[in-house]
Write a structure and sequence with these properties.
Strand content of chain B: under 5%
Largest interface: A-B, 26 and 19 residues
Shape of chain B: globular
Order of helices and strands of chain B: HHHH
Helix content of chain A: 25-40%
Distance between the termini of chain B: 12 Å
Number of strands of chain B: 0
Oligomer: heterodimer
Strand content of chain A: 15-25%
Number of helices of chain A: 7
Largest sheet of chain B: none
Chain lengths: 219, 82
């Protein structure tokens, strides 16, 4: 791994994490759902993600504490988010995430979402309680081929097992046209548990693809 | 405002957003008990409640709410504080 080091993310990494989240959300397309669903520019979304991370809410995808990052010569090159669903807080991550977005995004954006919410309903995936959720897997393109994503995910699993030895399952969501990500997850041991498809005619106006996979590892 | 009136208004908001009435507004009701109350609906429901009662929740208040009882209590407190 040469001089790559894995560590927990801190508040000082917020800019990098925001860029990583945006890249991961796009899933190798040019569609940023946080932009399309809320009628915001990518720049606006970037700032809003930083604001959400800055709130330091634990237990969801917009938590600094959820992220492990890889550093090389003091430059961040990879990040993966992970948390055990509902372990500490009584609120599931979907509520924490919604509260963060609802609180941080402009009201006009929430109203825009309201008008279009039914387009993406079929493709919403419920997160299973007490499972390790892996989200926002990002590796800088100049550092691919070094198994950084794999190492980060395995570190998340190791960390989760040490705080919660009863952990039975790891889950990740991926758009089914993201073959590179699917191959990575299969190499680590994930299998497809369920497929979520949307036939809404306007789905591709908002999301990178119309089909999402729920992939799992049973521990 | 009385809690029953608050509950009635919240019930109407839930029906409008979720497009069904397969739930009972009791204090123990949570999002996972109600079909369709996902992350998208939650954002919209909270925004509609804020608009309807002309209040604004703080983030920590939103995250402290665990069930309908907590929500109704908080709405009542915020109305009184106006």
């Amino acid at each position: 791994m040469s001089n790559y080091t894995i560590r927990k993310a801190t508040l000082e990494d917020i800019s990098f994490l925001s860029d990583a989240i945006i890249a991961a959300e796009k899933s190798n397309t040019d569609k940023l759902s946080l932009s399309t669903l809320f009628n915001l520019s990518e720049l606006e979304v970037q700032e809003l993600i930083k604001s959400m991370l800055d709130e330091e809410i634990d237990g969801c995808e917009f938590s600094v504490n959820s992220f492990l990052v890889v550093e090389l010569d003091r430059t961040l090159v990879a990040a993966v988010g992970g948390w055990i669903e509902n372990l500490v807080d009584k609120n599931p991550s979907k509520i924490l995430k919604s509260n963060l977005i609802g609180f941080t995004f402009p009201k006009s954006s929430i109203e825009y979402l309201q008008a279009n919410a039914e387009v993406i309903k079929e493709i919403q995936i419920e997160r299973e309680i007490f499972t390790l959720q892996i989200e926002y897997v990002f590796v800088d393109e100049n550092h691919r081929g070094n198994k950084l994503a794999e190492k980060l995910i395995k570190q998340h699993i190791q960390n989760a097992l040490s705080t919660f030895p009863e952990l039975k399952k790891v889950q990740v969501h991926v758009f089914s046209n993201n073959q590179a990500a699917i191959k990575l997850y299969e190499r680590i041991g994930f299998h497809v548990a369920k497929t979520y498809t949307s036939n809404h005619p306007r789905i591709l106006n908002f999301l990178p693809f119309n089909e999402k996979l729920l992939m799992e590892i049973n521990i | 405002m009385e809690k029953n009136e608050i509950k009635d208004r919240i019930r109407n908001i839930l029906i409008a957003v979720l497009k069904h009435d397969n739930f009972v507004i009791d204090d123990s009701l949570t999002a996972k008990d109600v079909e369709g109350w996902d992350s998208l609906s939650h954002m919209i429901i909270i925004t509609e409640i804020e608009k309807s009662f002309e209040i604004r929740f703080k983030l920590k208040e939103l995250n402290k709410m665990n069930n309908m009882g907590d929500l109704v209590e908080l709405v009542q407190t915020k109305i009184e504080q106006k």
